[in-house]
Amino acid sequence: MNQIETQLEQCKSVILEAGSRLLTSDDISVEEKTDYTNLVTKYDKATQQFLIDAFSQIMDDATFLCEEEDVADTSGRYVFIIDPIDGTANFTKYYGHSAISVALAREGKLLWGAVYNPFTEDFFEARAGEGAYYNGKRIHVSEDRLKHSLVAFGTSPYYRELRNESFRIALDVMDHALDIRRSGSAALDLCYAACGRCGVFFELKLSPWDFAAGMLIVQEAGGKITDIHGNTPNFTAKSSIVAGNKGAHQEFLNLYGK
Ligand code: IPD
Ligand code: CA
Ligand code: CA
Predict the structure, then answer these.
(1) Above 80 in pLDDT, residue 65?
(2) Number of structural domains, the chain?
C-alpha cells in the first residue's frame, strides 16, 4: 500500500469508530440553529470534532470544510469536506437513517468519498478512478428508464422559498416514474442512486458537505451528477443536485432542467 492508501484506510477506521459512538446516543441535546427545523445535537458537534482531530493526525497538511461551528478552510492541498451527521432530524427521532459523510479533495479534485450509516452498517465508498463500493462490493447505477425508476428527492427544508418548486417537480415526476421517496439524508440518497436503488435523486439546494462524498460515489458508479442546469456542481459551494443513471438523469433534465 502506498502512503495515501494507508492514510485512507486509517480515515475509514476513524469513520467506523465515529459511527459506533452514534449508536449509543441517549441524551441527544437538541438545539435549534436558524429555526425549529434546522437542528444540531451534541453528537453532530462531537462527531465533527472527533473526525477533525483524528484526520489531522493522519494528514497534518489537510484543511477542513464542515457543516458545524463555521469550520471552512479550503486552502489546503488536501481538503476534507465533512457532514458529521447527514440526517440530523432523523437522528433526533431515532429513525435509523443518518450518515457520516466525508469527502477528501486533493488540489481541487475529489479523491475519496465515504458515506457511512452506522445504524445499518452500510458503508459506501469511492476512490477517483477506482470505482464505487458498498460494504466492499463494487456498485453500479441502474439501467432503468425514468418510468421504471424510484425517484428520491430532498425538500431543501432550510429554504422555504424552494418548497413549492420542490413539490411541483416531485408531484409531476410521479407521472413519469415508478414512485417517489424522501429519506431525510441527501448523502444516503446519492449512494442509493449510485447502487441503483433509485434511478434519480434531486434536491434544489444542498451544501457541499451534503453532496461532495456522494458526488464521487455516483460518478464512480457510472452515474451522472449535475445541477438543475446540467452543469457539474462545484463541491465547495451550495448547489442544486440531480444525480442518477445517465439515461434517467437526462430524461429528468429534459423535463425539469432550467
Ligand atoms: C439535510 C439532509 C436532508 C436534506 C437537507 C440537508 P442535515 O442534512 O441531507 O435530507 O433534504 O437539504 O440539509 O441538515 O441533516 O445535515
Ligand atoms: Ca447534511
Ligand atoms: Ca449535518
Answers:
(1) yes
(2) 2
Q: Which residue's alpha carbon is at the smallest distance from atom 15 of ligand 1? A: 87
Range of the domain at 17: 3-139
Q: How far, in Å, CA of 245 to CA of 91, rounded?
A: 29
Where a domain ends, among 111, 139, 167? 139
Nearest partner of 178 among 132, 147, 209, judged by Cα: 147
- From 139, 160, 192, the end of a domain falls on 139
* φ and ψ at residue 145, rounded to 5 degrees: -65, 160
Does 155 sit in the ligand 1 pocket, CB within 6 Å? yes
Q: Is the CB of 157 under 6 A from ligand 1?
A: yes
Take atom 2 of ligand 1 and give the residue whose Cα is closest.
185
Global pTM value: 0.97
Whether residue 105 sits in one domain with residue 65: yes
Average pLDDT over residues 120-143: 98
**Cα 206 to ligand 1 centre (Å):** 8
Q: Is the same domain home to 151 and 127?
A: no
Q: Are 221 and 132 in contact (CB under 8 A)?
A: yes
Give the CA radius of gyration of the chain: 17
Q: Is 102 exposed, middle or buried (0-12, 13-18, 19+ CB in 10 A)?
A: buried
* Helical spans, DSSP H, in 23-105: 42-58, 88-92
Domain match, 61 and 167 both: no
pLDDT tens-place string over residues 173-232:
999 999 999 999 999 999 999 999 999 999 999 999 999 999 999 999 999 999 999 999
Please report the atom of ligand 1 found closest to the CA of residue 210: 9
87 touches ligand 1 (CB under 6 Å): yes
| CATH code (residue 84) | 3.30.540.10
Ligand 1 center–CA 85 separation, angstroms: 9
